[in-house]
Structures are given as structure tokens and as C-alpha cells.
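Report of the visiting student (M.T.), summer placement. My assignment was to run the structure pipeline on a short list of targets and document each run. The first record concerns FAD-binding oxidoreductase.
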Amino acid sequence: MTDTRLSELIRLLPGLRLSTDPGDLEHYGRDWTRRWTPAPLAIAFPADIAQVQAIVRWANGASVAIVPSGGRTGLSGGAVAAHGELVVSLDRMNRILGFDPIDRTLTVQPGIALEAVQKAAREHRLTYPVDFAARGSCQIGGNIATNAGGIRVIRYGNTRQWVAGLKVVTGQGDLLDLNRGLVKNASGYDLRHLVIGSEGTLGIVVEATLWLTSPPPETQVMLLAVPAMDALMKVFAEARHRLRLEAFEFFTDRALSHVTAHGGQDPFDTVHPYYVVTEFEAPDEAAKGEALAFFERCVAEGWVVDGVIASSDAQAAALWRLREGITESLATHKPYKNDVSVRISAVPAFMDDMHRLLTASYPDFDVVWFGHIGDGNLHINVLKPAALDNEAFVAQCEHVTAMLVDTLRRHGGSISAEHGIGLVKKPWLGSVRSPEEIALMRGIKAVWDPNGIMNPGKLL
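After the run finished, the C-alpha cells were exported:
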């Protein structure tokens, strides 16, 4: 390490693990977008809060930008380090710090994986209900930084609803202890919620206290084959009316084809244009009878043409894999991703406009879309043809995204539902936030991070 700035950091923190290994620089310098060439200064692996504070204070003095790093599963370029930044990885800060059975809270370090939090909750006969396919690799700190949603938002909401307290190191190196797990705290601005979703631009989450809840009663999983796009919301309305929904997800035939090519098993003999996987409470025979009545009504109305109800946990997991395996099955194709949302009531009209736009704009591209239709969130994946230059591919996709933004604006939607703004969506922030809002956001960042060292260039 010949850089004198790093030599000074090592002198200040002799116990800090610091890496300039080329493999580490590449791995920790990029996220799942794979669109920017990673070029960090180094990777720091702090072991505790004091080391994080010392790193931030050093960075201010050395004029070095910091990129906080979680599980590297981001999809918007929010954790990219391409301009000599110091990546601060929270991998080593991955412990459970405490459980309170009365408050039903779990206090954890930010580098702990979501799946480990869910497992710890189950050990106390409780549940942490935020959930998505990357549960084994994404980290709680990153979930908080992007206010992650996932497959059970329809029942439990986003990450924001489950954060009882936070400890945060600001851009000046100060440690804030926010809310302290209080259920009621009417004492001015709740800075905890300002940090949630801020994408590491205000500070670094170094500890989180999470609310847990009672596990749901026994559930069932159902996969439905839907013949037309306009039937999707009719099926959803009927399901929400009759069932106690845990999740309601949809995907297209193109999505299913990629998952089955990746090892998933299609339970139907015929290909259908759309599919719904839904999970709902089924604690007794009455609830199971209501589920059957729901299915029969949908078939009678022509909204559903086939269906499967899981008869075991293994079959339920296999049905869920058809939805949760989509992102992994597309990874090798380097997809260009859009993550958009509209009000639930606007979903049918928006989907119709979106479908026409995508069909006209990508006549020769493989476009895979799916989403959390029950909360108005749709994911669009455009796969790069092998013969097309990557730069030309991205340029064409960004041209279409600009038109998609106009469509979202007409329907009152957002260009980012749950993946954050990062670098990818920064050009379109103004489609969601007014100039006055953006000016206030810049002012807030200037207070928290006066030297602009925290994840610069992202979001704003």
C-alpha cells in the first residue's frame, strides 16, 4: 500500500483490516448492475462502531469519498465505487447483539444477512417478515439503506415498518442513536426514517433494532395460469376479497421459460401468457374451502384456466422457486432493469400502456417482466442480445426508459419502487421529486455530510 493516505489510515487504526487486493477491489467495487468498471482506492473491513467513526473522520481529513457496502446485491448502481473511493464493507459487523422478549425486538449489526435475522426470529418463535429471493446474501444494512420491500409487502409493508431503532455514523463521524426502540416517540423529527432509504448518502448504519411479530398461521401456496393481462387484477381483487393474503406475485411466460431452463419445474402441460403465485392463510378447513371457492370463481369467470395448490412444504417451495428464481436465471444475460411502481388502482391502465410501449420499443429483444402486483411494483428486464455492443444496448434501453418515465408520470408513478436511485436512475429523479423537494434533499445531505464524502454521485 504505497498511497500515503492509506498509510495514515493504518497508522490511526493499526487493527483495521484493509485490502488493496485486485480481486477484492473488483468484487467490492461493483454491484449486480455490472455497468461500471470498479476502481476503489481500497476496501476497509471495520470490526466495530469505533472503527467506522475513525474511518469517516480520516476520510474527511484526507478528502476521500466513502461507499458503504452491504451484500453487493444492489440493482441501481448505489454501491458502485468507480472513482477512487474507499469502500467500507460491513461484512465483519454481522452479529446478533440482543433479543428482547417483552419488546419483541432483535438488535443486530448491519452486516448480518436477512436470512440469519429470519432464522434468529424463528428460534424465538417469532418472525421477521421482510423477505425476498436474495435473503441469503443481502444484508440488513443494505435493506435499510434502500427501504427494501420484497414479496410480502402486501401483508407486512417495507423494511421501514420493522425498524424500531438505528445507530448511524454521520458524514462527520458522529454517532446518532435514533428512536431507541420506542413505539411512541413524539419528540420532533424522526431522523430514523430519514436514514431509511437514503442509500448511504447521509451516513453508515452501524446497528439496527428490528421489530419482530407473531408467525402467520398455516398457509397454502397456489400457482394460477392466467390467459390475459386484463385478468390479473381481477384475480387479485377476488383473492384480496376472499383470502387473507401473505403474498401475491405475477410473472410472464418468458420469465417462466428462463427459470425452467435454469432448473425449475413447470407444473403445467401448456404454456400460458401469465402466472400468479399467491400465498394465503389456511389454518382450518373453512379457509381451505374459501380458497377452493376463490379458484372456482376465477375459472368460471375465465380469469384463470389452470391452477395448482401445493400439498406439501416441498411443493410450496418448488412453486415459489418459479417466481423467486427469475432474477438468478437472468443474471448471465446482463439484463437492463427497470423497477417501477404505481398506485394499485392505476396498475391495469399502466400495465396496458407499458405493454404497448415495450412491444413497440423492443420488437427483437427478449423482455421479461414480473412483479409484486399487489403493491403496484413491476420489474422489467431487457436482455442484451449477444451480438449487440453493451454501450449501444444501454443507450437504446435508456432511450426507452425516458419514454417509460413519461408513462409513469401520466399515471402518478415512480421510476424506483424498491431498488433505490443509485447511479442508474439518477437522471430521472426529477420525474418523482419536485425541484423544491430535491433542493431540500440537497440541504439535508449538506447538514449530515458537509464535505460530501458519503456515497457521492448517488441519488443526487
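Residues 390-410 form the longest helix (21 residues). The chain has a mean pLDDT of 94. I thank the supervising group for their guidance throughout the placement.
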